[in-house]
Amino acid sequence: MTEPPPPVPSSPDEINRIWQHGMHEERLFHDRLNYFSAMQIGLLGVFAILFNKEPALGVFVPLTVIALLFTLLWLWVQVRHWRYCVHVNEQIKRCVPEYGRTVQAFAAPGRKDGLSISRPLAIAVPLLFFVTWIALFAGVWLRAK
Predict the structure, then answer these.
(1) How far from the centroid of its chain's Cα atoms is residue 41's Cα?
(2) How many other CB atoms are found less than 10 A from the CB of residue 66?
(3) 71, burial (CB in 10 Å: exposed 0-12, middle 13-18, buried 19+)
(4) CA 98 to chain centre
(5) Residue 130: how many CA atoms within 13 Å on its side-chain side?
(6) How far apart are CA 105 and CA 130, in angstroms?
(7) What is the DSSP letter of 11?
């Protein structure tokens, strides 16, 4: 059995609150993306500085492990939050018919909502950093041998 959809808010204040909540969640999604990206860039900077000094595996193994774990945490947080943003977006489309019509008019084949760019951001960016860390560590490993 599926649950019936929640009732559409009846007052303008309720509609405004769900709209503001949706905008807040979307902003949090992108702020977290920026935060994690900045942290990854910082770790890459540390990696580059240490690489130019002395590529010792005793330094690069822990640094790479930490960076990979941080990247996996980032991926988990972003995917989970993206799903919540989609949920809130569905609520908004039910409560604000004009928004639902606008999103539907924008949607094209392969795009079912206005958040279509958020999914690649949530998944691809952390995975690209993950691959970057693996490649950099492989380079250090080969250079050390």
Answers:
(1) 16
(2) 12
(3) buried
(4) 27
(5) 14
(6) 36
(7) S
8 A C-beta contact, residue 129 and residue 71: yes
Report the chain (145 residues): mean pLDDT per 10 consecutive residues.
63 89 91 92 90 79 91 93 89 86 74 68 90 90 79
Q: DSSP secondary-structure letter at 125?
A: H
The token duo for 6 is 């929640």
**8 Å CB contact between 69 and 99:** no
Residue 57 has what pLDDT? 82
Distance CA 102, CA 29 (A): 22
Q: Distance between CA 58 and CA 61 in Å, rounded? A: 6
Q: What is the pLDDT of residue 34?
A: 92
The tokens describing 53, both together, are 């000094």
User: Domain residue spans in the chain?
Assistant: 12-144
The DSSP code sequence of 38-78 is HHHHHHHHHHHHHHHH---HHHHHHHHHHHHHHHHHHHHHH
What is the helix, strand, coil percentage profile of the chain, to 5? 80, 0, 20
CA–CA separation, 69 vs 11, rounded Å? Answer: 45
